[in-house]
UniProtKB/TrEMBL annotation:
Pfam families assigned: RNase_PH, RNase_PH_C
NCBIfam families: RNasePH
Role played: Phosphorolytic 3'-5' exoribonuclease that plays an important role in tRNA 3'-end maturation. Removes nucleotide residues following the 3'-CCA terminus of tRNAs; can also add nucleotides to the ends of RNA molecules by using nucleoside diphosphates as substrates, but this may not be physiologically important. Probably plays a role in initiation of 16S rRNA degradation (leading to ribosome degradation) during starvation.
This protein's name: Ribonuclease PH
Species whose genome carries this gene: Roseisalinus antarcticus
């Protein structure tokens, strides 16, 4: 029934390769099916000005898509002189999601910027960015702990994200682009273990019931459990 032939509750193949860049304190290349995102985490030994003297750290994110990450070439946003609304929305989501899983007191007065660059897009780029972004962030934190700059691990349960939706009237897990573009209902679930961080759900052509929403949440919990296991294996 699904274009890919997957079962309704089946994730695309997930792989996370770490240490893929030379200079970043933490980096990984996450592949979720044909969606590939390069995630890097960079440490600055000072917080943003609004946090100076508070004892709190900060995690922020930036997001972008390469011109040929999609079927036809996109214009670089830098040539337009500003970021598009979609880009701003997604990078704010990534930053909020990752900060929710950080003990900012334990992190101390420093900032970690997580950059998520989409090399190839086939649906779910924001979810892959959050999932891979946590891995890059954890590797950067490991470097701080190894150097003795951070004594207590500020990260707990992995932060993961997955999409779910109603495709051809059926609840499905981890939408790829053909499904995402035709879904009657589209949702993104950001979770830390069994705890929810953010849920984005919208009717894209069909309304949904509370029962259907709970079904999609159940699928999301299954997907997040699989993603969390992949994240922990990558940083082990």
């Amino acid at each position: 029934m699904r274009p890919s032939g997957r079962a309704l509750d089946e994730m695309r193949p997930v792989s996370i390769e770490t240490g893929v860049t030379k200079h970043a304190e933490g980096s990984c290349l996450i592949r979720v099916g044909d969606t590939h995102v390069l995630c890097t985490a960079s440490i600055e030994d000072r917080p943003p000005p609004f946090l100076k003297g508070t004892g709190l750290g900060w995690v922020t994110a930036e997001y972008g898509m390469l011109p040929r990450s999609t079927g036809s070439r996109m214009r670089r946003e830098a040539t337009a002189g500003k970021q598009g609304g979609r880009t701003v929305e997604i990078q704010r989501l990534i930053g909020r999601s990752l900060r929710a899983g950080v003990d900012r007191v334990a992190l101390g007065e420093r900032q970690i910027t997580v950059d998520c660059d989409v090399l190839q897009a086939d649906g779910g780029t924001r979810c892959a960015s959050i999932t891979g972004g946590w891995v890059a962030l954890r590797l950067a934190v490991n470097a701080l702990m190894k150097a003795g700059d951070v004594r207590t691990n500020p990260l707990g349960v992995p932060v993961s994200a997955v999409s779910c939706g109603l495709y051809a009237g059926q609840p499905v897990l981890d939408l790829d682009y053909p499904e995402d573009s035709e879904a009657g209902v589209d949702g993104n679930f950001v979770m830390s273990g069994e705890r929810m961080i953010e849920v984005q759900m919208s009717a894209e052509g069909a309304t949904f019931s509370r029962t259907e929403m709970e079904t999609l949440l159940g699928l999301a919990e299954k997907g997040v459990a699989e993603l969390s296991a992949a994240q922990l294996a990558a940083v082990a």
